[in-house]
Amino acid sequence: MSVISIAAPRRAAALGLALGVLPVTDTLADPLIAVVSQQAAAVTLIDAGAAAKVAEIAVPGVPAGLAVTPDGRRLYITHPDLGLVSRLDVASREVEARFHVGQEPFGIAVIEDGRSLLVSDWSDDALIRVDARHGHETGRVAVGRSPAGLVVDMVAGYAYVADRESHQVSAVDLARMTRKAAIPTGKAPFALALSPAGDRLYVANVQSGDLSVIDTGPLKEIDRFKVGLMPYGVATTSDGSRILVTNQQSGTLAIVDAATHAILGRPKLGSYLEGVVAFGPGRAAAVAWAEDSVLIIDVGKDRVTARIPVGAGPRSLAVMPRRWEPGVRGDMLNP
Amino acid sequence: MLRRMMLAVALVLAGLAPLAAHGPTPQRAEERVTIAASPDKVWALLASFGAIGDWHPLVKKVSATGGNAAGAERVLTLEKGEITEGLDEIDPAERRLSYRLGKENAEAFPVSFYTAAIEVKPSGGGSEVVWDARFYRADTTNEPPEGRDDAAAIAAMTDFIKQGLEGLRSKAGGQ
């Protein structure tokens, strides 16, 4: 999706297979989705199955990126204009901490089972690691200009950052906090998504209107193709078969075959689509920025099944792990 | 020598401009107007991308290239300077077009980047025109001075759209 991400897809898939106990009913399979609204300074929690708003929580001003802990108990939110990261306790629905990180913290990811955070600093051109409890900086690596979207592969130990004004993706070795590669992409890369297997990184290039596909083995771009005008969000379905790209200027969702890179459909779904996430079998949620709504999408049918009003100026969203699912109940990261 | 130094400074500034061009907090303006004229008549005015000067009161002069197809460009002369816009989409069936700021000029228009769309819909016996824009303030750092902040950007964009819609209504006829 756009400015956030966690390593969940790969890990979650592995867990489900290992335990063989994926929830079966629709109600159980549908996650909560968290959405940040910039103008409203709020985070909205949505029950994707019921297509209903669960809570709207006030946060500090102009929130942009968000990331959720693996247990789903906490959300971390960036506030670039304030130089802040805030921590929201999901159960109490309250902001329980806020700390200064860098100059303009933008993209954010939770790592090390929730003990640390990675933050891209839009104006200081760095990827910063902080401890999640107090926000103290514990590492920093220089990346390209205006780093935006951030995605982490915890299995491989890599973070990928979209260096928007350098037209490249930086690959950062998390153990050493060093940059292993700067991979050229299309113009103005912003949002990133990793395939469930971790072997492909998809990069939405806003200005050139195309999608870069990076092979994470050799860290090389292996394909780049047009998807639409101003692609601002990207996600992969949980089975990895489809890549979803929101084209902001056209309000369309490009549905791409991950194997052939053919565009299977490009329905117009809303006005100024931005962040997108996939969940469950064949479904997705996307932000319609100008409509102040989140769209729940049936990917196979190319259509919107529900529109949920949220606070003004929604940007990015995150799928929240459910505490009550087998295997993710542990309280290992309560800061 | 002095001239050479000034040129060097100008180049450095030009090199920095793209860095600040896209801050993280977009703003929005949306206005709509009903017009007695038919949707086809209103659309004909809008679809002539280089002819915005015929109906927009804030546009003093236009020079355009590329006709009315995606990829066309127009340079608008406003009261305080020029800005360049590019046509990205034009859909006669939906009567919708979208365009983008190509070359900013914060002196002329205090916005660093925008995309905008105009759509004409049938309404009663006439038309409804919806014009919206998504844009960033002129100074995208964390402490923009007055006149280059969000408020200035919103005011300028809203005024440009409102006056444009009024001009469009006058030109299309009907009130």
How would you describe the overall organization of this protein?
Chain B: Keywords: Signal. Chain B: It holds the Pfam family Polyketide_cyc2. Chain B: Residues 1-23 form the signal peptide. Chain B: InterPro entries: Polyketide_cyclase/dehydratase (IPR019587), START-like_dom_sf (IPR023393). The complex is a heterodimer of chains A (335) and B (175). Chain A has one domain: Methylamine Dehydrogenase, Chain H, CATH 2.130.10. Helix content of chain A is 5%, strand content 51%. Chain A is built from two helices and 28 strands. In chain A, β13 and β14 form a beta hairpin. By secondary structure, chain B is α+β, with helices and mostly antiparallel strands. Helix content of chain B is 27%, strand content 37%. Chain B has three helices and seven strands, in the order αβαββββββα. Chain B has helices at 2-16, 39-47, 150-172, and strands at 27-35, 61-65, 73-78, 81-91, 96-103, 111-123, 126-137. In chain B, strands 1-7-6-5-4-3-2 form a seven-stranded antiparallel beta sheet, with helices on one face. Chain A binds chain B through residues 38-39, 62, 64, 80-83, 103-104, 106, 122-123, 145-146, 148, 164-165, 188, 229-230, 248-250, 271-272, 289-290, 313, and chain B through 18-19, 22-26, 28, 30, 88-89, 98, 100, 115, 117, 132, 134, 141-142.
